[in-house]
Amino acid sequence: MTTTTTNATTRTKSLAKRIFNFSAGPATLPEEVLHQAQQDVWNIADSGIGILEHSHRGKVFTRVLEEAEADCRAIAGIGDDYHVLFLQGGASLQFAMVPMSFLSSRRTADYLDTGSWSNKAIEEARLLGDVNVAFDGSKTSYDHIPADDELNLTDGAGYSYYCANNTIYGTEFSRPPATNSPLVCDASSDIFSRPLEVSQHAIIFAGAQKNLGPAGCTLVIIRKDYMAGANDGLPSMLDYRRHADKGSRLNTPPAFGIYVVGQVFKWILRQGGLAEMAIRNREKAGIIYTAIDSSSGFYQPVARPDSRSMMNITFRTPSDELDRKFIEEAQQHDMDGLKGHRSVGGLRASVYNAFPKAGCEALASLMGDFATRHG
Ligand SMILES: Cc1ncc(COP(=O)(O)O)c(C=O)c1O
What is 38-270's CATH topology? Predict the structure, then answer.
């Protein structure tokens, strides 16, 4: 690496053939987890069989699944009143499963439109029932998270839906919105990056491929009494109750995904849990925001300062041409994945839990140098 890896020699060694990956997802995973997975793909728990080859009903996988659920509960303080499910279909299937289960001709749902992903969820819900857009962020180019008094909520809504972190625009709720109906949260891009108020929610879901593990596994945390009121007549694979009855093994589950997510849960616990994640993430994101704010306007942030995401940092240089040049130079310095989403343009640095602080320092250093040369 040409950039700083100043810490222990073991770290430098383990990073030797890797570069800083700022991808929005799939994204950087903890090195310890990757090393453990390498071993366990060959032979897990001294069973003589790799994790990819074990029966999903056998003893070894049963333990993997049970530990993943227990560790997830321990991380977020999830009580017995919630199910913890590991499903498939990505977060996008949840865009459909939620309204299929909880929307009907008698029940409107409130949706907060804070970006592309909540917008997609709204489109899916509209296929299935009545939707009230309680906040329309498109009017301000999705530059901020609404204050409570910007919400136009429905009395007696079936649920209120929000996306905790808007991966594309780089805005993030600092706390759940104050609503008067059961709260549904898409936490795909900031789950377990900070303490999570589970008890304020009826459902929290997250595709794994940013903060939790590989694509193909979706974590769903759903309150039991809310789930009990789901619509009847759904196909089994789209019915939360069937998945919960079978403990996430209604069919062959995403076994490898669950295994890796379980390892990431253990890693989070070893690091000190969500409070420690929040400290590290604030520090890491702060390094890059400081580089933006101290550039005398060379870098323009996409998100309003009061709505900044700790996970996805979005900004622009003065021109598309300089954006492209910056990305090229970053690649020459072993930094990848910095191109902004095609709908926003500019640059985006995604710095999820496992992304190292050294990568944020390397980026900030290049940003300062680049602005001096091109400002
Ligand atoms: C906040 C958010 N929700 C949903 C999705 C869609 O996830 P999936 O590809 O797992 O369906 C993404 C993907 O980036 C996302 O960032």
Answer: Aspartate Aminotransferase; domain 2 (3.40.640)
